[in-house]
């Protein structure tokens, strides 16, 4: 699909031609995967390296389209591309950067989910886990569309759920949800209620953050494995999360904030998914 000498440092990369071929490669992905046609994905990793090394001012305009098309290809061929341990870290860093850009956020979020589904054993490495935590901890500031955020949180939760060390797993889940706890805590803090009522702009912002926090918590619950009946309840990470989440949820359901439709929908969703995931 790709040819020519653009891989040389002395030859400019014809980005429009590259984007066209990336688009075509993505369109025929289903056929290629079904037929098991051999393809050298080293060129894809070369593009990942080039774009990841580019300065932010270089990734403007049409280059955002190239970034998105490359993320689409990574998602479509995730099983093949992620089959090699050495690809995991550069792929995660590439997708992490693309998630923060409006044009490529959806493609990168979707590709991240597929990579995490197809290569969970390869990503379950300390350095890769830290990249995932960096992505997750930045969500509060990025304000992604909810569907993109759900893809990202679901991908991270899937990997964290496979971590064998229970103490590490609990610590990482707590880090992932710390901003959610904080956002909900600000809303249900009795000392803040009076001041919030008299500051509509601040109240709207806190309400939005709490709603997103509830969606993130629900998504985490939905992607963690259901506890085995034979395991002690205290050892399972879901019950560790519930010990923090349940009192907050009880206080939230008794509050007047539940009159807000978006918040109440997110809270009921989180409650339902928490119950399902706990196996109760």
UniProtKB/TrEMBL annotation:
Gene3D superfamilies: Leucine-rich Repeat Variant (1.25.10.10). It comes from Citrus sinensis (Sweet orange). It comes from the Eukaryota. InterPro entries: ARM-like (IPR011989), Importin_beta-like_NTR (IPR051345). This is Exportin-1/Importin-beta-like domain-containing protein.
């Amino acid at each position: 699909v790709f040819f020519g000498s653009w891989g040389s440092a002395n030859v400019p990369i014809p980005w429009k031609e590259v984007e066209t071929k990336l688009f075509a490669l993505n369109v025929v992905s289903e056929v290629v995967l079904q037929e098991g046609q051999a393809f050298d994905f080293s060129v894809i990793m070369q593009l990942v390296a080039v774009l990841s090394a580019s300065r932010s001012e270089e990734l403007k305009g049409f280059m955002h389209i190239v970034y998105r098309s490359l993320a689409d290809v990574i998602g479509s061929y995730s099983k093949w591309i992620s089959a090699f341990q050495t690809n995991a870290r550069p792929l995660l860093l590439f997708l992490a950067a693309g998630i923060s850009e409006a044009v490529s956020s959806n493609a990168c979020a979707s590709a991240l989910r597929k990579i995490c589904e197809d290569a969970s054993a390869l990503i379950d490495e300390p350095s890769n886990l830290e990249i995932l935590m960096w992505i997750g901890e930045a969500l509060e500031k990025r304000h992604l569309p909810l569907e993109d955020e759900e893809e990202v949180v679901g991908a991270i939760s899937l990997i964290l759920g496979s971590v064998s060390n229970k103490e590490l797993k609990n610590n990482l889940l707590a880090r992932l949800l710390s901003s959610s706890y904080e956002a909900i805590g600000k809303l249900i803090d009795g000392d803040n209620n009076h001041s919030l009522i008299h500051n509509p702009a601040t109240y709207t912002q806190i309400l939005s953050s709490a709603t997103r926090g509830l969606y993130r918590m629900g998504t985490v619950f939905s992607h963690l494995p259901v506890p085995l009946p034979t395991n002690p309840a205290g050892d399972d990470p879901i019950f560790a999360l519930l010990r923090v989440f349940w009192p907050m949820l009880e206080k939230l359901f008794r509050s007047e904030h539940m009159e807000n439709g978006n918040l109440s929908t997110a809270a009921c969703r989180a409650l339902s998914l928490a119950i399902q995931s706990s196996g109760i």
